[in-house]
Fold this protein.
Amino acid sequence: MKRFFKTTLIAATALLAAFCASPQQMAKLASMVKTDCTPKILECKAGQIKATYTISFPANYFVPNAYLKITPQLVYNGITENAPDFWMQGEKIRDNYTVVPYKSASTVKRDVVFQYKPGMEKAVLQLAVTIYNSSKSKSWEYPIPFKIAEGTICTSNLAQTSGIPFFEKDNYEMESTETVETQILYDVNKADVKAARLNSDEVKAFEKFLKDAKKDSKKTVKKGKIIGYASPEGPEDNNNKLSVQRAKSAKAAYDKTISKRADVDMDVTVEEKGEDWEGFKKLVEESNIEDKDLIIRVLSMYSDPVVREREIRNMSQVFQTLNNKVLPQLRRSRIVAEIDKKNFTDDELKQMIETSDDRLTEEGLLYSANLFEDAAKKADIYNLAVKRFNSQRALNNLAALALQQNKPNDAQNWLEKITDKTAGYYNNLGVVELQKGNADKAAEYFYMAQGENGEIIASAKENLGSLLIQDGDYDGALEVLDGTDGFTHALALLLKGRNDDALKHLKKENDPDESYLRAIIAARKGDVTTCENELVKAFEKKFYEERIDNDMEFAALQ
């Protein structure tokens, strides 16, 4: 039996040697050559498709007087693109190609690169092999090319390429609270309310405001408070008692006179603050007193009210000015009312927009623009805000609208009118440059788009992240995107193979872009049901419905 196997092995070896005695026979025995590729499914990164292929020859195969040429080919949509040829030679050939030995097995490894073009999603990577004799006068092709990889994952191409414009926000509030106040002044060391002071223009304006608020269906007089003060002069104990007495007398005057003339029923609390050093400092800061900086310095140096008063009195000429202009305004009681205000509803605002109602404020106009889907209508509203209020935010939003329509020149015209250069302004300048094809200049502006805290705003981070993804720098993208949620951050994580981490950043349930990424994650996990459900939502955007047939992320589920 052993003799039989030994004889058979010798015979097979001899047969192989005989078959590979010429270049032509190498082509006939192509099945003895083995190939491999990394990756098995190709991937597009930074606009390129890269792969590493290996070709392995058995012993006694590569005849010494032969050439072998490998042509990597990417075949898609009936198109064949060739990468540079790779030549090998037998041991007896005197040339400068890679030498493959005859008697021993040998493996050769090579990298190949193709520039991505649309349609390569379902491309096949194959190796066409041609054998030549020693003079290259004759050639023999392998019967069929070696197919080594199929399909291209192009998930990186989902990165935003036209940029994300920034819309300035409005400060419109559906409900708000406003305060209105008046005050009653007193004589030195007195707490009685004089009739003349109850009939001052300030008190009458306060009463009228409350009366009008009561008639206004959108306003509710909520509550009020009365606060008694004393000017910071004389003994502190006496001033504390005086502030209590003034608060009480003001409350009595309010109950007896002011509330009846204003015709309001408002819950009012009473407080007393004693010496009004805070009011004193405010009045001094707002005055044109010659030595006001010195007075403020004294207030900051001493916290003891007795020491403060003494130091200020030592400045005799200054104190006289204070005694005439500042201290009389601090012998007072404040009456403060809180008014709950309901603003215009969405429906009311829409009606007001149609008539260009004069009651529309800048905030109301900026808010109202979001109530309409039509870009032209939004532009009309922003233009009205510019006309009435020279709204810098509306100018920026007009630029953002233009960028959404890929009109960078129009956007630039709007941005040139802006004097208040916010982070949103610089982000939109970056998108202008991006849409003009100036990626480096765009990145410079995105880095300038910093908020008050010195941090780059989220839109600019996403734009920078998209640029880095397009460059194939996924780690750099993740560093820039730190602190953000949403599509771009999730995409960068997905490209790094961090599927679960990517899912944590996808928080919008009805966003087609985020739904598509969730579908990819589900497909990678083999979760068919979730994948199908997310694709249904993603197909709200036609782009994804058209993309799905060629997306190799879903190949295993098809």
In short: The chain has 23 helices and 16 strands. The mean pLDDT is 91.
